[in-house]
Amino acid sequence: MKAMIIEQYGEADQFRLEDVPLPSIHDGEVLVNVYAAGVNPVDWKIREGHLQRIYPYAFPLIIGCDVAGVVVKVGPGVKKYKVGDAVYGFKNLAQLGGYAEFVKFNENDLARKPDSLSFVEAASVPVVGLAAWQIMMVHGGGIKPGDRVFIQGGAGGVGSFAVQLAKSMDAYVITTASKQNQTFLKELGADEVIDYREHDFSTVISSVDILLDTIGGDALDRSYDLVKKGGKLLSIVERPNKDKAAKLQIHTHFIPETESNGKMLEEISLFYKYGKLKPVVEHIFPFAQAAEAHRLSETKHTRGKIVLELFQTSPLST
Ligand SMILES: NC(=O)c1ccc[n+]([C@@H]2O[C@H](COP(=O)([O-])OP(=O)(O)OC[C@H]3O[C@@H](n4cnc5c(N)ncnc54)[C@H](OP(=O)(O)O)[C@@H]3O)[C@@H](O)[C@H]2O)c1
């Protein structure tokens, strides 16, 4: 099969499209023919070697976590899927392998692709959807109607999902973005969009029930005082300071890494099925242009998601 590999850590020009062996599947696993692969910041962080102390990856390495495609083979004991099923899922950071024609999945890490989403749209969802879901709905304990929710960085992959998720729960949603993304976020449902380049958000926001930080650093430092007593400061990028939070009597939650979870993805699928969420794919690249897709993601100013398209139509032969 064809795969986009790297032989060593480095810049985006490390990518090479090569023939590699087809993954062999075992108990409980299925082989998925990848139609589209989502691009996430963690992909280029891995490519640059930032995760090598946590995950000593072997080379050649196939990067890529977000996948949508069709099941072409099922291993012994597989109960949920059969050949021909359209699926999507998150290959966790220990596994990766998404930038390839075929990838194997444990069946429990997959969900059925919602009919209302194309393969490209479905590939944009797993990482950002599961990250936002896990930090806000699981660790953060959920969102209640009327909650004031502030999402740092609403225009990005996680932010654009989180804004819609909070809005679908009838929260009052405040977010930050630069000038070119103000209208986009209003259209996604945000009640207030603050241009963080023009205004110091910490002087115009107060008393939020839930704050989700997708930026970190200075943005996180200036966030603590905005959360009301008993409220929640949630982060997917940096562990909040517990002492600072304790003094303010606010709760903190941090997820260093998203969990792969097919059941949760099925719950997210329902939001797409019932039109509560819409996918935000702003850039589609042919598979061969993975390097260009990474360079774009590295700017940290893309809107919504970037997706690599492998095949436009189904089905492929193995
Ligand atoms: N812990 C986990 O499990 C987990 C999971 C997923 C992602 N993450 C991490 O979360 C971060 C966000 O991920 P992502 O996929 O959403 O990234 P992304 O799509 O690359 O985010 C890009 C967005 O960030 C916005 N942005 C940049 N600087 C900003 C600032 N100072 N204030 C407000 N917005 C700003 C940009 O908006 P403008 O162009 O309008 O500035 C742009 O739309 C990344 O660091 C990623 O690695 C962690």
From TrEMBL:
It comes from the Bacteria. GO terms for molecular function: oxidoreductase activity. Residues 10-308 form the Enoyl reductase (ER) domain. SMART domains: PKS_ER. InterPro entries: ADH-like_N, ER, GroES-like_sf, NAD(P)-bd_dom_sf, YIM1/Zinc_Alcohol_DH_Fams. This is NADPH:quinone reductase. It comes from Paenibacillus tianmuensis. The lineage of its organism: Bacteria, Bacillati, Bacillota, Bacilli, Bacillales.
